[in-house]
Design a protein that fits this description.
Length: 143
C-alpha cells in the first residue's frame, strides 16, 4: 500500500529516492509519466498495466481521449530502481513538473505522485481550505 507524504531531494543526475516503505511494492522498476496539476505519476509495473488497459479502451474518435492517451503514454518512462532505491527522472519530465531540488512524494495507494515542494505546498493549502466543499460534492458518490 502506497500512502503518506515524504520529502526528498533530486540529485544533480535527476535521481530520486523511493521511500523505503514503498520499495517492495515497486520491485525492480517503476513507470514515471506526466501527471495532472503539475506533478508526475509513478506506478509499479502491475498498476501501470491496469491504467494502460483502461486508456486503450478510450474512444480514439474523441479529442479528449486522444489528448489524455498522448499525455500518459507518450510521456511515460520506464526506469529501474537502483541498489540504493533511486529512480531516474529524465529531464523532460522534471521540466514538465517544474521539479527543482526539493520534492514531495505523495503516496496515493496504487501510485505515487512527485511534486515540486513549493507547488505541492500551494496545492495542499488550497485543497485543505476547500475540504468541506470537496467533501460535499463527493457525498453524491457515496464517499
Amino acid at each position: 500500500m502506497l500512502i503518506g507524504e515524504f520529502r526528498y531531494n533530486i540529485d544533480q543526475k535527476g535521481r530520486l529516492m523511493i521511500p523505503a516503505k514503498f520499495r517492495n511494492r515497486f520491485g525492480v522498476e517503476a513507470i514515471v509519466t506526466k501527471g495532472l496539476e503539475s506533478c508526475l505519476f509513478v506506478f509499479p509495473k502491475d498498476e501501470w498495466e491496469k491504467v494502460v488497459e483502461k486508456i486503450l479502451k478510450l474512444p480514439i474518435s474523441q479529442a479528449n481521449s486522444r489528448a489524455f492517451t498522448r499525455l500518459m503514454l507518450a510521456g511515460a518512462f520506464e526506469t529501474p530502481i537502483d541498489s540504493q532505491g533511486r529512480i531516474l527522472i529524465p529531464e523532460y519530465l522534471r521540466n514538465y513538473a517544474k521539479l527543482q531540488k526539493k520534492v514531495v512524494i505523495v503516496g496515493l495507494y496504487s501510485r505515487i505522485e512527485v511534486w515540486d515542494e513549493e507547488i505541492w505546498e500551494k496545492y495542499r493549502k488550497e485543497s485543505e481550505s476547500q475540504a468541506q466543499e470537496i467533501a460535499e460534492k463527493l457525498s453524491d458518490l457515496g464517499i
